[in-house]
Specification:
This protein has 218 residues and is of the alpha/beta class. The chain is built from 6 helices and 11 strands. It is globular and about 40 Å long.
Amino acid sequence: MNEFGTVREQCVSRIGHDAEPDKRKLRRAILSVRNGLPADDVRGTADALARHALELPELARARTVAAYVSVGGEPGTLALLDTLHARGVRVLLPVLLADDDLDWGVYEGADHLVRVRYGGRMTLLEPAGERLGPEAVTEADAVLLPGLAVDSRGVRLGRGGGSYDRVLARLERAGAGPALLVLLYDSEVVDRVPREPHDRAVHAVVTPSGVRRFRPPA
């Protein structure tokens, strides 16, 4: 069995087959699997994710893309960021603020990332250089959202910090309609994620085995 099948088997066994699983239970199960992934497996999926993502017309025609730098066992994004940057796409990366909102800076390559530790919670890779303000995300033609799972309706499960709920609300207030995309492992496409009134469905999920669409971009 390859690493993709192993991840799927582990995730299903820990999540179970609940029709509407609890968000906390889903988060614990998926993070447990991710934390156990060998670094070589994480690196091995990054190229497949980038290849499939770059086939999306939303990214092919984008001039500005808001994304993030993967850390730990997250599905790898650096290969995708580097290719977009090499194409001349303006790539925006988040900077976590004290109130958990997000500022943004421009990606200038892996050598221009800084490692920032936020208390005992997490360590993130953020862009060095000028801060553009939280509203900069409204200029994006596509937004790559971090996530832990997505369901058959396109409902995304985040980590629970609320940072990207603010981003999505900001986009809505501005009347912006970027393509909303999420990169996940195949096992993280599940039957149901509990949906709350503020949740917005993503347009597509990219996994190592391909792309699944949920709705056309606005």
